[in-house]
Amino acid sequence: MEKKTGLEGYYSIVNNKKMRFGYTTGSCAAGAAKAATQMLLEGKKLKYVDLMTPKGILLHLEILHITRGENWVSCAIKKDAGDDPDATNGIEIFTKVEKIQERGIFIQGGIGVGRVTKKGLEQPVGKAAINKVPQEMIQRELEDICNEADYEGGLLVVVSVPKGKEIAVRTFNPRLGIEGGISILGTSGIVEPMSEAALIKSIEVEMRQKVENGAKYLLVTPGNYGATYMKNHLSLPFQENMKCSNYVGETLDMAMSMGVEGILFISHIGKFVKVAAGIMNTHSRCADARAEILSANALRAGISLESAKEILNTVTTDEALEIIQREGILDSVMKELTDRILFYLNHRTYNRMLLGAVLFSNEFGYLGETEHVKELTDLLNLQYQKG
């Protein structure tokens, strides 16, 4: 029989599929802390704990691995990420709560909880990567229990994740400068599958970390194709690249708000050809006008009407490029495209940033670049040499 968690009936619709909600590592830590404190101060033995999340959803969480000492109790809650492809799904979050003489509630990270080693994250350098909202959740729940139990002493709360170090290598943490384990996260307490807001937030977090560690110029790729091409073919600080996924517009907006002075994009043409028409979310469900954009720019470069119509019937950008190359105007078409890409990048940022883009394809290799690429390359290499 399936255990009830309180999330029954909560789901997102993603690509016409129902995707069930889950709960965050922060909710696991707070739920385990609440249960351990109730057992410590009230002498109860619990199988489940109820936890109200900041989103307003009441969770009903199973308590695992209860152990007791004279002045402490430890227990765990297993994370359920719902249908989100989350690396931490199924991981067990332990919380040990211990009575201490000093008044107050003190929250620390134990084994498997990462430590912050770079500026720009929510917690300062040297602290455990337990974010503000999970800490507030723990604080609120434990204060309520202490008041009900008339307990006037202090509590030491240690959150640990035995498999955290192992799991962390599959997360963004190493890129962000969080070492030794996972982060205890969650602003709503709930995981919404494949949430665009969560993806954009992860881009913002990585960008802010780079900016606060001194970066004025950013090296950005939409995904793994761009990162691999950069590593193999370009003289750039590959290890410093960050991914923007499909969110070109949001990446530019966030960079402008943080005072970034320039961005160099390295992209497969299949993504960035859309930017040449002012499309700033490159996901196919938002716009798939690749053939139309290539055909229009090929016409500008002098291709025949018959060949332009042939491009309109292609499925992939490589098919279209074969036609353009056959007509001997590949360089001219790339010049048309890159000029328009730069125009729309500048338009999005009101010409307040130095911007550039390099285009490639897996079959054709290097295709072209906008103005300012050489200048941005020099600035990025200088920035990271100094760093």
Put the structure in a nutshell:
This protein has 13 helices and 18 strands. The chain has 387 residues and is an alpha/beta fold. The longest helix has 19 residues, at 330-348.
Give a description of the structure:
The mean pLDDT is 93. Helix 9 packs across helix 12. The radius of gyration is 25 Å and the shape is elongated. Helix content is 38%, strand content 22%. The chain has a five-stranded mixed β-sheet, covered by helices on one side. Strands 15-14-16-17-18 form a five-stranded mixed β-sheet, with helices on both faces. A two-stranded antiparallel sheet has the order 1-2. Strand 14 (217-221), helix 6 and strand 15 form a beta-alpha-beta unit. With 387 residues, the protein is an alpha/beta fold. The chain has helices at 25-42, 132-148, 164-168, 173-176, 196-212, 224-233, 248-257, 269-272, 290-300, 305-312, 317-326, 330-348, 373-386; strands spanning 11-14, 17-20, 22-23, 48-52, 58-62, 64-68, 72-78, 92-100, 104-109, 115-116, 154-160, 178-179, 190-191, 217-221, 242-243, 262-268, 354-361, 365-369.
